[in-house]
Amino acid sequence: MRLHRPLVIATVKALQEIFFVKNPRQADKVIEQTLKSNKQWGSRDRAFIAETTYEIVRYWRLILFSNNLYEDKLKAPYFWQIVGSWLIIKKRLYPNADNIDLLPKWDEFSHIQAAKILDRFEEGMLIRKVRESVPDWLDQLCVAELGEEKWGEEIMAMNEQAPVVLRANTLKTNQDKLQDLLDAIEIETIVPEGLPDALVLKQRQSIFRTDYFRQGFFEVQDAGSQLIAPFLDVQPGMRVIDACAGAGGKSLHLAALMENKGKIVSMDIEEYKLVELMKRAKRNGVDNIEVKLIDPKVLKKYEASADRLLLDVPCSGLGVIRRNPDSKWKLTPEFIDNLKVTQWNILTEYSAMLKSGGKMVFATCSLLPSESENHIKRFMAEFGEQWEFLGERRTSTAKEGYDGFYMACLQKK
Ligand SMILES: C[S@@+](CC[C@H](N)C(=O)[O-])C[C@H]1O[C@@H](n2cnc3c(N)ncnc32)[C@H](O)[C@@H]1O
């Protein structure tokens, strides 16, 4: 593969916006904006920029270590060295990838000494937190909660690129039919085991521009995430509350499982997410969703009203760092501690919206028991007289290839 200068310039700029500017931005937002403002690039060029930027975010610590660079001493021109050295390291780390043949002799790459970088890289590969590129505090926290072995396996798996998984919208099509429709437009997919609506893309490609996406035949949703709505055991005609609905990934799945019958009240504290949810509902042909911005009055109004309640609570996202690798660098221990308080408050306060006999699912996309299992154990210890614990499930990136989700189902007596 040959390296094209405009693509490296765009990658350097994107990385500076993620790591270097005064108000750094999220990697996915930066990449989206970079690609949007350069519509002339073809699909290979776009893939190069997106993949290279994500890879560097993913292996940030390993790359800095290999270059003897320190985050607090970075200067803007070093980002060229970072990109160039990554392309050298990548050849060692992923020899079968479509790698560059040789770094071009550009001035900006003139400080790069490949042999030195690779020696230091080999040293870094012996230290987990450098090899897997995680900050010290996060490595310590995850070892303390999961143990060395489990954490080592999960973080290694989460440094691989995530597959693109679709969920067939059963209000408009099904897994088999969608596979045939996509096949006919040269989008090849695989049917994963045990997921009745999921299809996995064989090759990464843009699917948002297809007519099938525009017509709501599918949504993009990780396989682990597709297990959560069925865990709530909904039936057509029920009254369901999705209390942390966001832009509605799980509300839409619930609506499909309920065959568009009954009522789903999708709540959140962020109005713009609910606006996006309604747009997606329209595309999906869903008309049993109503959105509600949360305030104390809403909680009172819906007290003891729901047959089913989904609490897909805000969390660290440590189970989905494969998709959002920059959260490794943006999360802080204080932020996670605050989230745990919010999660506990949501669990204890919002559960009042469930009817007696109703079922509730508490879900996170975190690997940490302190954001997941421990809340449920504490909840059952404090309120167990009014609740029955029906079961829980955890998905593993290392073992199943799914994102790391946790879900527990409880029934109100
Ligand atoms: C994990 S995300 C939800 C993802 C969504 N269910 C989906 O499937 O696309 C958690 C959501 O909780 C919302 N949130 C944060 N604090 C909240 C609170 N106190 N009450 C309700 N929702 C809250 C966030 O705005 C965010 O949209």
Automatic annotation (TrEMBL):
Its EC number is 2.1.1.176. InterPro entries: MeTrfase_RsmB-F_NOP2_cat (IPR049560), MeTrfase_RsmB-F_NOP2_dom (IPR001678), RCMT (IPR023267), RsmB-like_ferredoxin (IPR054728), SAM-dependent_MTases_sf (IPR029063). GO terms for molecular function: RNA binding; RNA methyltransferase activity. CDD domains: AdoMet_MTases. It is an enzyme of class 2 (transferase). S-adenosyl-L-methionine binds at D268, D295, D312. Residues 154-413 form the SAM-dependent MTase RsmB/NOP-type domain. Pfam families: Methyltr_RsmB-F, RsmF-B_ferredox. GO terms for biological process: RNA methylation. Keywords: Methyltransferase, RNA-binding, S-adenosyl-L-methionine, Transferase. The active site is at C365 (nucleophile). Belongs to the class I-like SAM-binding methyltransferase superfamily. RsmB/NOP family. This is 16S rRNA (Cytosine967-C5)-methyltransferase.
